[in-house]
């Protein structure tokens, strides 16, 4: 059984899902319209960073709450989560 703070996971997941939705919206734009507008490109970068940070925060929360090994870097964070069954190895 994995331990976690439901409120914290809900808040972080919400932020991650919002960032992904904004990226999907931007992804539906015609390529020329997107790449030709520096504000849209900056928006995509921002939402990508927000999503990555939320994913890292979620992983670190689970790692800390369950007293799993301490990750050495961000990539290690996701390796630990994969070892505990959160991600398919191919991912």
Descriptive labels:
91 residues; mainly alpha; single chain; 4 helices
Please outline the helices and strands.
Elements: H1 6-27, H2 31-35, H3 38-65, H4 74-83
Task: Offer a quick outline of the entry.
With 91 residues, the chain is mostly helical.
What does this protein look like?
By secondary structure, the chain is mostly helical. It has one domain (6-83). Helix content is 71%, strand content 0%. It contains four helices and no strands. The longest helix is centred in the middle third of the chain and has 28 residues, at 38-65. The chain is elongated and about 45 Å long.
The count of DSSP E runs of length 2 or more, i.e. the number of strands, is 0
Low-confidence stretches: none
- How many separate domains make up the residues? 1
SSE sequence, one letter per element: HHHH
Helix percent reads over 70%
Strand content: under 5%
Give the helix tally: 4
Distance between the termini: 23 Å
Main beta sheet, described?
none
Structural class: mainly alpha
Global outline: elongated
Q: Report the mean per-residue pLDDT as an integer.
A: 95
Radius of gyration: 16 Å
């Amino acid at each position: 059984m994995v331990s976690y703070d439901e409120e914290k996971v809900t808040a972080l997941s919400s932020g991650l899902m919002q960032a992904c939705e904004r990226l999907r919206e931007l992804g539906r734009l015609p390529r020329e319209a997107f790449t030709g507008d520096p504000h849209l490109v900056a928006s995509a970068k921002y939402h990508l960073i927000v999503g990555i940070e939320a994913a890292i925060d979620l992983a670190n929360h689970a790692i800390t709450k369950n007293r799993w090994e301490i990750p050495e870097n961000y990539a290690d964070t996701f390796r630990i989560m994969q070892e505990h069954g959160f991600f398919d190895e191919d991912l």
